[in-house]
């Protein structure tokens, strides 16, 4: 009989800047046993982020690295990189982290950092993606989980989900509909990573069965 070797639980770190609902979706999936991983820490650039409360409720260590306290982005990112190294994470999940990471961080964690974006990339990268979609008049919008590279929302795509854009939608109503999909697709992407099922081939991410 073939012996099945259980997967080692992956160490998962998080970066978030705000309310952290996507962060909550992932840690809920970990707690439910759906993701073979352990949340090892949250880093936030915002000392008032509600994600801090979510992390503490889940027993996940928090590092607050307040961007406003640093004289430059370079100095801030030195501290951020040191904190990320301290976590010794297999994967970092950007769950509403609102800053573009510098090249040194992106290089060090290449293939081990994913982001959730509220648009069907490559359409509508950057801020206010839902507003961009409504203003452009598209009929379908959605969300994308992608690996992080040194561009803005340009990394290889892992999973996308679609939602319809209704005729009376505004930025807020569309954002709410997309967010519901984000809460399922981000935990799924993290699960696939932790199960060693993601294979990067050039720009394409293949999912092993």
UniProtKB/TrEMBL annotation:
It comes from Methanoculleus receptaculi. Pathway: Purine metabolism; IMP biosynthesis via de novo pathway; N(2)-formyl-N(1)-(5-phospho-D-ribosyl)glycinamide from N(1)-(5-phospho-D-ribosyl)glycinamide (10-formyl THF route): step 1/1. This is phosphoribosylglycinamide formyltransferase 1. InterPro entries: Formyl_transf_N, Formyl_transf_N_sf, GART. NCBIfam families: PurN. One of its GO terms (biological process) is 'de novo' IMP biosynthetic process. The keyword Repressor does not apply. Pfam families: Formyl_trans_N. GO terms for molecular function: phosphoribosylglycinamide formyltransferase activity. Its EC number is 2.1.2.2. One of its GO terms (cellular component) is cytosol. Keywords: Purine biosynthesis, Transferase. The keyword Transferase applies.
């Amino acid at each position: 009989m073939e012996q099945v070797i259980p997967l080692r639980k992956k160490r998962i770190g998080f970066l978030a800047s705000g309310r952290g609902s996507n962060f909550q979706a992932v840690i809920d999936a970990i707690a439910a046993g759906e993701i073979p991983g352990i949340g090892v820490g949250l880093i936030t650039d915002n000392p008032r982020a509600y994600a801090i409360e979510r992390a503490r409720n889940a027993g996940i260590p928090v590092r607050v690295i307040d961007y406003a306290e640093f004289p430059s982005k370079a100095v801030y990112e030195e501290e951020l990189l040191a904190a990320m190294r301290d976590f010794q994470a297999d994967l970092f999940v950007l769950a509403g982290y609102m800053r573009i990471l510098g090249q040194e961080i992106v290089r060090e964690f290449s293939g081990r950092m994913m982001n959730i974006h509220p648009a069907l990339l490559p359409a509508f990268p950057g801020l206010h993606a839902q507003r961009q979609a409504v203003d452009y008049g598209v009929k379908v919008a959605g969300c994308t989980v992608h690996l992080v590279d040194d561009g803005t929302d340009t990394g290889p795509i892992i999973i996308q989900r679609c939602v319809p854009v209704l005729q009376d939608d505004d930025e807020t109503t569309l954002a709410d509909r997309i967010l519901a999909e984000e809460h399922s697709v981000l935990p799924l992407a993290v699960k696939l990573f932790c199960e060693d099922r993601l294979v990067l081939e050039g720009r394409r991410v293949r999912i092993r069965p």
